[in-house]
Prior knowledge:
ATP-binding, 12 strands, ATP binding, 392 residues, EC 2.7.13.3
Amino acid sequence: MFPLRILITEDDHVSALLLKKALEKNNHEIIGISDSGEKALEILAEHQADIVMMDINLSGELDGIKTTEIINEKYDIPVVYLSASSDSETLTKVVGTNPSAYVIKPFNIRELNMVIELAIFKDRKEKELQKLNNELEEKVRQRTADLHEANKELTRALEKEREIGELKSRIVLNVSHGFKTPLTSILSSAQLLQLYAEKEHPFKQKIGKHAQKIENSVRSLNNLLTSVLFFGKADANKIDFNPKKMFMAAFINEVVDVVKAGSENDVKINLKIGKIPKTITSDVELLYQIFENLLSNAVKYSKDGQEVDFSIWEEDDMLKSEIKDYGIGIPHKEQDQLFDRFFRAKNVGIIEGSGLGLSIVKKCIDVLKGEIKFESNPGKGTKFIVTIPVKK
């Protein structure tokens, strides 16, 4: 990503310095650090910024949300919110200021860099769209003198408006698709490196180690982009139920193989396939999202040497499944937020994640008109019970 001029607005001095250090490692220029909205506006009056990293809770009379409203009005530059809070009241206030992005603390630098890229992309596209709108309005005004021409131009204008509306709803989708192709190439190269590392070579061990790191990082980023892509479709109301005949045994084994390949933990998956028909009719993609996310989470939040139990069977035209791990579990006070978008429990520690997986699972199950329940105890593990109607 090209270097950016960034203003950090954060009332926690230590957090601000850590953020400054992380951003400077990626060659960004920090034009200033402010602990209040008033000081942030003073800095922007004297220095040009490409983007503002904005904490919601600030010292002084202006909080982050009010400061962002002023920045939107005076400077028209993208703002990325930084907050440890994800409650509905805060999110409602945030949405009202049309932020470029919203990041829940704590976050890692890789996720932060990705959010910054998306924010800059979104800002550029919105300005391009505004330019298109202005040009469109000008064309309509210029042609109103001739009634016949005006009618023709009006038809074109309406079509253009429709295209612009669709483009706005697909910005996130386009970003995700744009990343998919290079990520696939990187993943293929990493896998080739691993093949070469199997041959005799003085750096055999190092090649294999770094190739595995590349592959795991690409898989992690690819999963995040898949999640963004999914919610881009969800927000545009474009998630449809597309039932097709599918072979159950092959589908289940593929899910298990993919989870094993992407796992960084030494966790054994105990697969128990009960009485299931050879084929069923359902939406393959939605089912894959459900089981891959649940099984990946079970493995990710388990320790090396632990096991995950994955049972699946069919009963009364219902596909039923239980996925049980013996890992860190979910704190009781946080269990009602489990399916909220971007929610991550406080006990996850340094385990990476976007907080989108379970919200994707819930959305898919709703589309399939199914049901999901769970039981969890901190330190003892979690069990998810999934029931989905299917046709044979």
